[in-house]
Specification:
single chain, alpha/beta, Rossmann fold, Arc Repressor Mutant, subunit A, 2 domains, four-stranded antiparallel sheet, WalR-like, Response regulator
Length: 227
């Protein structure tokens, strides 16, 4: 991945750069919004990591300018502001994701990979296909090995998000934000309960499990058999 990191705090920037280096990612670091906007407009990046609170310019204003300039690179905003209103403001400004400090690097990296893989919705992506699993986003019909699977709305949303990010770690926090719109962890078994119900319908009647648990981290959807 080729990442543009916009972060004025040296310790945070070093933490992120060190983590990305372990994954062989290329990182260009800018410590102010003006320089970052020039780089984002002039070069192709897979994802932009944008700090919200920057000297001389609010990160929200910088993101608005980039979007107005037709820069479509996925953007994840980092901030110490945890209120729901702040998260909504970031998304409305044009950010694709929003992560509150402090955070674990594994959480950031999972989100970066998901954003880097995201493609604009086209006619030929109205149907998602992973192995023997098919999801039609128009009819909301789900088939596995030709057999229709009846899902409740939240189960469908979880599966759709997983199918948009196959073979990628999906954390509990990511599901809470993408499916329920929560910017905080309600400290309940909400995600586990719905994923368990989804698995009972999607995996239990078949010969191998497509939803894998990554212990202590989250879930992964795969089309590959265990054998």
């Amino acid at each position: 991945m080729h990442i543009l990191l916009v972060e004025d705090d040296p310790d945070t920037a070093e933490f992120i750069c060190a983590g990305l280096a372990q994954h062989n990612a290329q990182v260009q670091h800018c410590d102010n919004a003006e320089r970052a906007m020039l780089s984002a407009s002039a070069h192709a990046f897979d994802v932009i990591i944008f700090d919200r609170l920057l000297p001389n310019m609010d990160g929200l204003d910088a993101v608005r300018i980039l979007r107005a300039s037709k820069v479509t690179t996925p953007i994840i905003m980092l901030t110490a502001l945890s209120d729901t209103a702040d998260r909504v403001a970031g998304l409305e400004a044009g950010a694709d994701d929003y992560l509150v400090k402090p955070f674990a690097f594994a959480e950031l990296y999972a989100r970066l990979k998901a954003l880097a893989r995201r493609q604009p919705l086209r006619a030929d992506t109205l149907e998602l296909v992973i192995g023997e699993l098919r999801l039609n986003r128009t009819s909301r019909k789900v088939l596995r090995a030709g057999q229709e699977i009846e899902l409740m709305p939240k189960e469908y949303q979880i599966l759709e998000y997983m199918m948009q990010n196959p073979e990628q770690l999906i954390t509990k926090t990511m599901l809470l934000e993408q499916v329920w719109g929560f910017s905080f962890d309600p400290k309940t078994s909400l995600v586990q309960t719905h994923v368990s119900r989804l698995r009972n319908k999607l995996d239990k009647p078949f010969t191998f499990d497509m939803i894998k648990t990554i212990r202590g981290s989250g879930y992964l959807l795969t089309g590959a058999t265990d054998g």
